[in-house]
Amino acid sequence: MTTWRAQRQAGELGGLAPKRRGPAPQAKNPLAVRVVALEREMTRLTARAERAEALVEHPKKVSELLGIALPRNGEQT
Q1: Would you call 43 helix, strand, or coil by DSSP?
Q2: Quick one: 76 exposed, middle or buried, by C-beta within 10 A (0-12, 13-18, 19+)?
């Protein structure tokens, strides 16, 4: 009995330690975090580009409704 207690205190009886239940944790892919960050940035920049296009198209539509001719690229009034 004293031998068993000495072994337990020394940590030699690892089989008696409680084990974690459930599936083993999966190792995280270091590139997955980068992919998620890049996808989030792409979504943000796409939305920004769409807003910019809408701002460019708005004056064109207004000028068409009012019958005002806008100068084309390179032309000056």
Answers
A1: helix
A2: exposed
How many separate domains does the chain show?
A: 1
Domain span holding position 42: 32-72
Question: Domain for residue 6, yes or no?
Answer: no
Question: 69 CB contacts (<8 Å, ≥6 apart)?
Answer: 63
Its pTM stands at: 0.48
What is d(CA 6, CA 4) in angstroms, rounded to the nearest whole number?
5
Tell me which H or E stretch contains 24: none
Say whether 51 sits in a helix, a strand or coil. helix
Q: Is the pLDDT reported for residue 77 higher than 60?
A: no
Establish if 2 belongs to a structural domain.
Answer: no
SS3 26: coil
Q: Contact, 66 vs 73, CB < 8 A?
A: no
